Amino acid sequence: MTSAVHDEPATPSGDGGLVRVRLDLGYDGTEFSGWARQPERRTVCGVLEESLSQVFRQPLTLTVAGRTDAGVHASGQVAHVDLPAESDVDGLPKRLSRILPADVRVFRATRVPDEFDARFTALRRHYEYRVADAPFGADPLRRLDTISWPRPLSLTALSEASELLLGEHDFCAFCKRREGATTIRELQRLTWTRGEDGVLTAAVSADAFCHSMVRSLVGALLAVGEGRKPVDWPASLLRSTERSSSVTVAPPHGLTLVRVDYPADQDLAARAAVTRNVRVAS
User: Fold this and answer.
1) What's the predicted TM-score (pTM) here?
2) Residue 138's closest CA among 9, 10, 258, 251?
3) pLDDT band for position 16 (50/70/90)?
4) Could you list the residue range(s) of the whole structural domain that residue 50 is in?
5) pLDDT at site 3
6) Does 262 show up as a binding residue in the annotation?
7) Are residues 103 and 141 in the same domain?
8) CATH, residue 159
9) How far apart are CA 44 and CA 50, in angstroms?
10) Which residues are catalytic?
11) How many C-beta neighbours within 10 Å does residue 207 have?
12) Apex 77 CA angle, 17 and 196, nearest 5
């Protein structure tokens, strides 16, 4: 028996049916070629699907909230999988911990309604990007999730430029275009803070992100933060009709997916219907 189609509800449980299970997981993306399964490459999805298939002795397919690029980390990634109805869902994280490599872990496994879809019922995704602009660079113990920036950065300039990007826009200047995919997104949060350790952290939230969008936004903002570009420059790129060659994509290892929000169970089906519609500019 194989898993149900990844974006359709699980078949009703009973008589050997399937149940939908939400997986909350995290990973150090350093040694992964991103989330999506790729031939002859080590990916998060590939490792997890192989481990799940080993536990249940049948091929299983995961659907994820957001596909992360090579080198990007996650502390709050969400995926779903359809499992046999008799599965011990509560015990799954412990069983997987005996198989999975140390750089990926499933923290929780929870049975959810059939209408839950890790991708299409998500309300928003939350990322953080860490930048150290100290003269000595990043703390050695955080070097894998924090980039070192060679020049001082202005928190005020970063914050002012970020505020101008909020709202629903066509972010094609900041995205690697994919055939048939829209680049219209609602950027709901983009704030910068400087911690006691001196590290700058960008908190970025949106209903969804297109390919390389967060890292491109950060790259553009860092140019403002160090004084090479004016505060209104990143927002001016929103008028572009194609990807901007003037934007440098920030390195992947500073980025971490920290949380994904979902609606209440009774609103899952409605949310999935809305998300599947192609976004149009308002």
Assistant:
1) 0.91
2) 251
3) low
4) 18-121
5) 39
6) no
7) no
8) 3.30.70.660
9) 10
10) 69
11) 18
12) 155
